[in-house]
Amino acid sequence: MTPNNRARSQTAPFSHLLTLAICCGVPLLVLLAYVLAPLWSQGRSVVLPLDDVYIHFQYAKQIANGAPYVYNPGLPPSSGATSLIYPYLLAVGHAVGFTGLSLGWWAMAMGTVALMGCCWLILHIGEIAGLPHWATAVLTIVFATTGSIGWHFMSGMETGLLIFFMLLTLYALLTRRFVLTVIAASFMAVTRPEGAIMAVIATVVFFATFWRETENRLLVLAILPVAAQGVQPLLNRLFTGSTTAAGSSAKSILSMVPAETDVIVSRVWGNFTRMWWEFATGYSVREGLYLPVPLLILAVAGIGVYIAQHTSRPWQFAQVRRDFAMPLMAVGWLAAGTLAVATLDPAFWHFKRYQMPFMVLLFPLAAWGLVWAGRRSVWLQRGLFAVLIISSLFSSMTFWRSYQLNVGYLLQQQIPMAAWLRENTSEDAVVAVHDVGMMRYLGDRTTVDMVGLTTNGAADSWRNGPGAVAEFMYAYEPQPDYVASYTDALGLSYLADTPIYGETLAEFPVELSDNFNVALAGAFQGVWRADWSAMVAANIPRQPYPLSVVEDMQLADTVNVANLASEQAHSYVWQNNERLPGFPTEVYAFDYAACTTDCYVMDGGRRINGWEQFTLSLEPSVDTVLVTRVHPAHAGSYDVFANDEKIATRTLPVIAGQWIDITTLIPGDVVTAQMTVRVVPNTPGGHYMPHYHMAYQGEAGTQPPTEGQRAAFGDVLSLTGADVECVGDDLLVNLRWHSIVTNRADYRVFVHVYDDVDAPPVAQVDRYPIDGATPPGNVLPGEVSDEFVVNLGNISSGLYTVAIGFYDPGTGERLPVDARDTLSGNRLLLAEVEVPQACTTINAQSTMR
């Protein structure tokens, strides 16, 4: 008797009528239940419960229109469909008339057919295991009616298709059918990336086990499943220029930024252990019962039973290979497959969509465990089946309600949002979206996918955070006119706080379940008109002092931090010494701390506590001023190196919620055609936040210090001149500073007017010198003028003393004054003014020392 016949003749086969009733009738009942769920609740045509379904639908529509891989007509192809063959199968439905939402009927029909095939396979695998007919029938019905399984087969995704090919491969191995194994494994490989892993394992196991029993001319077919996994990368390369699918970049933990090995390992291991714990219990804290409670135990027992059944034979090498083929493949699938899924950010999203094939694999393996239980005790076996049935029925009701709930979410948000876009925007409108499926498929507008599944290049920006996303969208062609998305999902709140989310045009709130929401990421979505005007001229300084320095210089090069294209062009790299919570990049729209015109700027940038490095293209040997826009949220400093030579230390004041520009002079004798700049911040307990680097070349607009006596404020600044003048009720104090600082110097200047020098001032001005946002540590060598205006209109007539000084805004400590005319408390006496109805200067100090 041949191996195939021996496997088939262990029990008498099912009658055709019973097989038909179980394999067709039960899946049709599942289909009916899931079709009626949303119809009963909404009275609408079929809508499927995941926005991702409609990504496949859009690609299918484009395939039917002769444009495979093109998600948005007129734009380059993209690789957003993770499954290679599924959109083509959907395209057949579109071609025969299932268009719009009606394509959902075709998708559910494919899911039902796949479920029928799976039932047939489990029925026959149960026979091979040696279960009695009634037990095999019950196990198959339990499988088909388990809530999570029915949900995914009716979700409209490719999950059911992959499960069918997986079970078919297992069945082919058990019945030692080489050609069928090759065919089924090849289809697994082109259905999902997890399927490609399983296909390779299946091929290796089958070839190593049965190659002596297979005709030589057929052995060459073993290459097909291995080759099949290269088909999708090859097509991706052909159509998009990259072998990597966009989903891999957008979803993989291995693509996280920054690539911190310990964090990656911890997250993957956490997913892996959580996955197996939930397999063991059948239960998830968030969503409840997924699987019949004893299923994993029965599956593990089943593998043990299978091995025990075959170890009684003589231990000949060839026999051992054949006998252990099935457990080797099953264990390999479970270990490698779940580990691969554990590397995904969405490993537990969509009711464990990515885990489903491995959950389903437990059912046929459990058949051997149930055989063992029946041999121990009929009542034990029946008790286990009772638990399986009860668990299945309970989960069915839970997932049926969740299906109804999630379809309702799409009916309340995605569908009306898409309809709003179609009815209220022009045909050439471009819309930035987070969930891209329904907005493109029914909205019929060009979409920019912020996550990056269907828009080339966006996935890397998404991984880098909202600052990089904002920069990507601004530079993208065509630039988004609208945003249709959430306000708080995965960093979108940063975008929502900027003009990117401009005028609110439509709002779509929905009340979500905390436990059973898989369709949406948030309770609120809306449509906004995007405003990019604050980003148009982000590549120029706005602060008065830096502008005066570079006024007669030429802009030679710029590095737009968080814009990945600009970073790549300038060999930009960065590193953090300590792990920072949140996102690597952020985007803000702020006013400048000191500015005269066009002061509102939107810009993306990074958060760094280690260092950043980039290369500038410059004219060699020419003085260069590097102007860096920063968000000064944390106090500290940074050192600037040019070609590994330390150039200067710059000061980071705390002016949170505003921009400042910081200038660094790089002498011409250091400047090369390709100059490497390295910035090393020192921000204890905080971080440095660069947004733009602008390199100007030429003669810097600085003046040499005037000759004469000076007042020195510590080793930071010297005062080379002062003029005090009364203009109406205002006291004008004009000062000339010369910077002598070489290290961090974060000091503010005060101008005090005293009635009594030992009492608090009666009028004052307190700010950073020069333009109000330039600490002394950021003043370039040379002399600068500074004007302070003190209003004296609210003080009574009399003689008043004017004094100045510097203090540290963090500690309040004042700089010592080295001059002839000083007051206690490290104050420099400038003048005396008389205030009748209008102030008059009567005694200005002209010599300082």
If you had to describe this structure to a student in words, what would you say it looks like?
It is built from 28 helices and 29 strands. The strands form 7 sheets. Strands 22, 23, 25, 27, 28 and 29 form a 6-stranded antiparallel sheet that branches. A 5-stranded mixed sheet has the order 4-3-5-7-6, with helices on one face. A 5-stranded antiparallel sheet has the order 9-12-17-14-15, with no helix packed on it. The longest helix has 35 residues, at 378-412. It is an alpha+beta fold. Strand 19 and strand 20 form a beta hairpin. The N and C termini lie far apart (115 Å).
Please specify the SSE layout and strand pairing.
Blueprint: H1 3-8, H2 16-42, H3 51-64, H4 86-95, H5 103-129, H6 133-145, H7 147-153, H8 159-174, H9 178-189, H10 193-210, H11 216-219, H12 223-228, H13 231-240, H14 246-251, H15 261-281, E1 283-284, E2 288-289, H16 295-310, H17 317-323, H18 325-342, H19 349-352, H20 356-376, H21 378-412, H22 414-424, E3 430-433, H23 437-441, E4 446-449, H24 458-464, H25 466-475, E5 482-486, H26 492-496, E6 503-509, E7 524-529, H27 544-549, E8 554-560, H28 564-569, E9 573-575, E10 585-591, E11 600-606, E12 611-617, E13 624-630, E14 636-642, E15 645-652, E16 660-666, E17 674-682, E18 690-697, E19 711-713, E20 717-727, E21 730-739, E22 748-754, E23 763-767, E24 783-791, E25 798-807, E26 817-818, E27 822-823, E28 827-835, E29 840-844
Parallel strand pairs: 3-4, 3-5
Antiparallel strand pairs: 1-2, 5-7, 6-7, 8-18, 9-12, 10-11, 12-17, 13-16, 13-18, 14-15, 14-17, 19-20, 19-26, 20-21, 21-24, 22-23, 22-25, 25-28, 27-28, 28-29
Helix pairs in contact: 2-5, 2-6, 2-21, 3-4, 5-6, 5-8, 5-20, 6-20, 6-21, 7-21, 8-9, 8-10, 8-20, 9-10, 10-18, 15-18, 16-20, 20-21, 24-25
